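Give me structure tokens for this 517-residue protein.
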Amino acid sequence: MHKKKKTSVRRIVTGRIVSMLPVVVLQGLIIFCIAEWLAPFATLFYSVLSVLSALFVLFLISKRDEGAYKMLWLLVMFVAPLPGALMYLFYGNRRTGKALEQRLNAIHGSIPITLNEDADVREQLAGEDKRIAQTFAYVKKITGFPVLRNDTAQYYPVGELLFEQMLSALKAAKRYVFIEYFIVQEGVMWDAMVDVMEQKVQEGVDIRVLYDDIGSIGTFSARNRASLLKKGIKCEKFNPLIVLSGALNNRDHRKIMVVDGVVAFSGGINLADEYINAEHPFGHWKDIGFRITGDAIRSYAYMFIEFWNASSLNKITRELVGDDYDMTRISGDMGFDGFVLPYYDSPNREDAASNNLFVDLLGQSAKYIWFYTPYLLLGDGLRDAFVRAAQRGVDVRIVMPGIPDKKVVYRMSRSYYGELLEAGVRIYEYTPGFVHAKACLMDDCVGSIGTVNLDYRSLYLHYECNALFYKASVLKDLKKDFETSMEVSRERTLQQEKKGLLYRIVNGVLRIFAPLV
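Here you go.
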């Protein structure tokens, strides 16, 4: 199975590369012809270029963006002004997906769900903790998603346990299933889901699958999509890759499954075998997720419908979902287990919601704040927030992989260890294998679980989804899982990071390019 899967991945990637080669060659010829045409006007051209470069640098400096990221692009443009500016416009600018943004904005009025906020919920949270209520209010203001009473949220410390519940919910589906993932790949996990989905379609269930075109570039082909369509399963790709379009950014890194407006799933796992430990390319794959009911389902359904309707001509209408997401209907039968705010990050917003949320939680933490992340590539503001919290005496911990999936990124992540350890941050590396979990827990009362890595691409350039909880029982399970993971992890020490000059120089170089990874 493993050998067959590798062959399939190579075939898909090769096919995609071959299909793009003519476009790349054509664009190369166009650039060459333009350069030849401009050659007689070299002096004038470079004078104009110098002025434009200076204006471009001023534009970049004035932007509200992460300092480390701006410094990288300033360096690139200093070395090669014209190529650097073009690279930034195509690949570096957070708002490269204008057409995508316009499609998302165009369908807002037709989404058959409203994100109403219950003023009583907001007031109740403020009565519990005014400072935490301000944090939730900030996230709501930036993302548009409301604070909700949490009904139930079940935590799963490994992907295989979450998958069991996903498959069970899929088998129980009566009307519709929404599935949205960054990576989809044939194997034990996906094949089991497809078998159930095929049966459910025959029973009249409307099933829709949305996958990211680049996230699944080596794992899910046009042939796979055609196979689903033939079975009656609706399938679309998000933000298709077009060469030199800027589509390398603005990826859909979200993981969402909604069934019948009754239950929703999210967390770190993608739909591939390593996420449920059916394969072990990097030792034991540590991932987490949750199953949620109540008002929160409305937010996850909204996220899916927004992206689906922007990607497909076959829109989701009120006729399909009915009154499943009517706030009064859902709230009427709910229990109460704290508060929850599901939301998604967008590179089209000026404010990076999750990055700013983590800075805020680090700033108000009093006892401890712990993080799961597979990658640690911090911008200046978030790095300083980690340092300041630890220097105040807060127990700050980060659980990282013990076995990396990407060695270069792992080495880049370690370049941040020294100053964090020196400030008092404790860093653990999970010895059984790779950590793909993404979570944060503060002072037993606030935490988040979702798809957000602590790296620039995840915090600034991709679409991510996250659930912010307050005084929900799921946080107790999250804390227990943190403790269990740290018991089987090795703690890094400052002495291990005190190495020679060459090592520090390499760290500095890696840090320069970290925002591109």
